[in-house]
Specification:
The structure is a homodimer.
Chain A lengths: L5 E6 L29 H9 L8 E6 L3 H7 L8 E4 L5 H15 L4 E6 L3 E2 L2 H17 L3 E6 L10 E9 L2 E8 L4 H10 L2 E11 H11 L1 H8 L10 H8 L8 H6 L5 E6 L3 E2 L4 H6 L9 E3 L1 E6 L5 E4 L4 E6 L4 E5 L3 E6 L6 H12 L5
Parallel strand pairs in A: 1-2, 1-4, 2-3, 6-10, 12-14, 13-15, 14-16
Antiparallel strand pairs in A: 4-9, 5-11, 6-9, 7-8, 7-9, 8-10, 16-17
Helix pairs in contact in A: 3-6, 3-7, 6-7
Chain lengths: ~350, ~350
């Protein structure tokens, strides 16, 4: 039987600018059927958790501009399961609100907080890990993060150094580290002590609310002012007035790197953050030329190692002499860029904004 | 005053497959505003001749599938000025029909026959040359072709070797030659004796009809069977029944290379056949990176010498690391191909047809 005090918060307010123009501000990547399975990344995140969290305990938190997309993709949710942020303020305010909202409904709630835009391939292992994590945070005053066993010296992720085991796969956290240089990443992976920071967290609602008070009092104060309004018709109005005034800060920086009671569960369930075209390429089936096609037909001549992604289905892409490129067509924007240069895309988005305003964002 | 016996036949039934997918079977290049001037190549051909040929003497001959496009682009033409071919049979049948059609209306007619998809930059010189040509064919039993003074050893064109001068810029033709190898083309250009074959012809209706009888009796016989029907309501029905049975053959091969009375007028009025992406690139204004953009906005990084062409206006193309490529976006087909490989495009069209039928042609 599913534990009725367990909740899931799926964060899906990001704009996915690293995947521009395939991911646009009007339809970011979490709302796209990124892997061609028939379900968007958001829907896949939702489907995955249903085995261990009651349907009515799943909360989607997103930017208000995506309200219609969430309703379309998850029509089975009740209105109070979708929290709409009136502004983008990174993860700490988002998590604080969700915790207050859930705590008002169920003071004994325990919560898994998860991004919506990653890929998890081994669902059974994921569910076992999350179940172990829930049990741990329900019995302990603990902030738990899931650390992924690294499979390569990735320089695009943050790492968590683990301390002593406290139970099963769960360790005290020794340090959080930022994205390392390659040499350092290689040492990290070899040591066996470092795990990728997945951005998936488990805690009791009461534990994270206490931690916010202690580590991020500015954020905590904002949401304390709403006490008594959460779960009532006045909640939305309170958020509309107070959320935009919150500082923009990540939960890692605001809480996890400061709190005393931080733990990591070392897991290995086939995870990719799908944060870059290269990781998407790596995680996608390839044809015999090593080309990956998303939602299009391709005729390729002298062209290998490319990533083709088209928003509107049915397009034919004919290409000659391209190696290791991204070709992303989004109707009114076409991007052609070497995979190795994908870190330029944020700059390109800025340049497009300078030249054309919001038209192509 | 404009000579009322002078006629112009503009041929515009081609499908422009070398410019696929920018030029599609549903809207070939002659119907596109190729140079961004606000007028299509067909409209430019029409505008250009109006100074010396009466409006009502301009005949458009095209495939029946383009009837609507011609009406849209030249709404001022009367119904009997648009001849619709029920099948593609190259230029000889097309020219034979047009000659019979015009001769029925005006036995004294002289005609300029011109493709619709070239570029002419020096209009005054063009008009002077055509006027000289009309006068020559009206006074002589002559088939006259316009030979363009070559500016480079182009291997994509046919050449005409000139014989002795007969009047002004007009010479007897010594030989027609096919597309030469580069070494030969260099010799041709240096010799001063060779001119590019423009595919623009002048003759009296009676002269070309006689030449067809002599050199291409099969073609001539087909159209002789329609005597008495041209210019009547029965003409269209006769053509629908008889035109498709005609052999497919070019006027060069059927007549010009065989007839005794063939002349060339050596001209120099800034001509390009716009037959390839490379010639279009050469004839288009470039930005400081040497990129040419047709109907789109471009953000280019490390990208020079490219040709960007988009059918639907308003698209933003963002490109990094492409040099000397064609990037042609036609809604449901995107082509990315090195300019130097553009001769592959015909093969690509074939491959697209094999894989997807007519959908993308």
């Amino acid at each position: 039987m599913v534990n009725p005090h367990r909740y899931c918060v799926i964060m899906c307010g990001g704009i996915g600018s690293r995947f521009w123009p395939y991911s646009r501000s009007l339809r970011p990547k979490q709302f796209i059927d990124f892997l061609g399975t028939g379900r968007s990344l958001l829907q896949m995140s939702y489907d995955r958790i249903l085995d261990i969290v009651p349907r009515e305990n799943i909360i989607i938190i997103t930017n208000e501009q995506y309200a219609v997309l969430v309703r379309e993709q998850l029509p089975e949710l009740a209105a109070d399961q979708v929290l709409l942020e009136p502004a983008r303020r990174n993860t700490a305010p988002c998590i604080a609100w969700a915790a207050c909202h859930i705590a008002a409904r169920d003071p004994e709630a325990s919560i898994i907080v998860t991004p919506s835009d990653h890929l998890i391939t081994r669902e059974k292992l994921f569910l076992d890990s999350v179940t172990e994590g829930f049990a741990f945070v329900e019995e302990n005053d603990a902030l738990l993060t899931l650390g992924i066993k690294p499979t390569r010296p990735e320089t695009g992720y943050g790492y968590i150094q683990v301390g002593p085991v406290v139970a099963g796969d769960i360790h005290k956290v020794k340090t959080f580290t930022e994205k390392p240089r390659l040499e350092l990443a290689e040492v990290f992976v070899e040591s066996g002590e470092f795990f990728w920071n997945s951005g998936i967290f488990l805690w009791k609602a009461s534990t994270i609310i206490s931690a916010l008070k202690e580590c991020a009092p500015d954020v905590a104060n904002t949401f304390e002012r709403g006490a008594g309004l959460y779960g009532t018709p006045a909640e939305a109005e309170f958020i509309r007035e107070n959320f935009p005034g919150c500082m923009s800060i990540s939960i890692d920086f605001a809480v996890m790197e400061k709190a005393r009671n931080v733990y990591v569960e070392c897991v290995n369930f086939g995870w990719s953050d799908l944060g870059t075209w290269s990781t998407l390429y790596d995680n996608s089936p390839k044809n015999r030329d090593g080309n990956v096609t998303q939602n299009c037909s391709v005729l390729a001549y002298n062209s290998t190692g490319n990533m083709f992604a088209v928003n509107d289905g049915g397009k034919l892409v004919v290409v000659d002499g391209l190696k290791d490129y991204i070709i992303a067509d989004a109707g009114d924007v076409l991007l052609i860029c070497p995979l190795a240069e994908e870190q330029r895309i944020k700059q390109m988005v800025n340049d497009a904004k300078l030249a054309h305003g919001d038209k192509y964002l």
